[in-house]
Design goal:
- The chain has about 210 residues and is α/β, with parallel strands linked by helices.
- The chain has a single domain, classed as Rossmann fold, CATH 3.40.50.
- Helix content is about 40%, strand content about 25%.
- It is built from six helices and seven strands.
- A seven-stranded mixed β-sheet has the order 3-2-1-4-5-7-6, sandwiched between helices.
- Helix 1 crosses helix 3.
- The longest helix is centred in the first third of the chain and has 29 residues.
- It starts with 5 loop residues before the first helix and ends with a strand.
Length: about 210
């Protein structure tokens, strides 16, 4: 898996600590903010699919039947819960402990890369997007959904006030915008939506063919 940075080691400790409570938190977050985000994201997955920061596997029920899926996560405790969920659903999904910034796969290994609510908590989000692009084949699709800095002034001000606390306690960044990283990596954004007072953004971006 390679040598962790200090930031990644801290992130692993946070998720090992919070894994037992994660699903309970997400049930409320999904209901009031994410809404149909998981089903939207997974419905667009095609071919060989990699989910980065798969967590406890909350997306697993939303993938089309027969999806050729592999998942990675930094936290063994989160992966244990994802394995249990896959077993309950009767799914065979390889689950790998790995850093999002050092994915253990060759270049162009996947047709689709998915990341849901992961880039807000990955210490080096730019490096993570670069790795997702590396393992994505030509013509492949990157699918992301995350909470982002809002375009609404009052909401953005609240996020700025909240950000130091959530970063310190949970490594959770309120002011990120994955869209800019995706474009900087050279992918073409083909679908993009914002909702939840501008705090949720979902997008599909395509890697150039050839």
């Amino acid at each position: 898996m390679g040598q962790d940075s200090a930031a990644e080691a801290r992130a692993r400790r946070i998720w090992e600590r919070d894994a037992p409570r994660y699903d309970g938190w997400m049930r409320r977050f999904d209901r009031y903010l994410l809404r149909d985000g998981r089903s939207w994201l997974c419905s667009l997955a095609r071919g060989r699919v990699l989910e980065v920061a798969i967590g406890t596997g909350l997306n697993l029920p939303h993938y089309p039947k027969g999806t050729d899926l592999t998942g990675v996560d930094l936290s063994p405790a989160m992966l244990d819960r994802a394995r249990a969920r896959a077993d309950e659903l009767g799914l065979r999904v390889p689950l790998v402990e790995a850093s999002a910034t050092r994915l253990p796969f060759p270049d162009a290994s996947f047709d689709t890369v998915v990341c849901a609510l992961g880039l807000c908590c990955i210490p080096d989000d730019r490096a993570a997007v670069a790795e997702m692009c590396r393992v994505l084949g030509a013509g492949g699709t990157l699918l992301l959904i995350d909470h982002v800095v809002s375009h609404r002034g009052t909401v953005r001000t609240a996020q700025r006030l909240l950000d130091p606390l959530t970063v310190a306690c949970a490594g959770d960044h309120q002011l990120r915008r994955p869209l800019h990283l995706v474009r900087a990596a050279g992918l073409t954004v083909v679908r993009r939506e914002r909702y939840g007072l501008g705090t949720i953004e979902r997008l599909a971006a395509v890697k150039a063919a050839g």
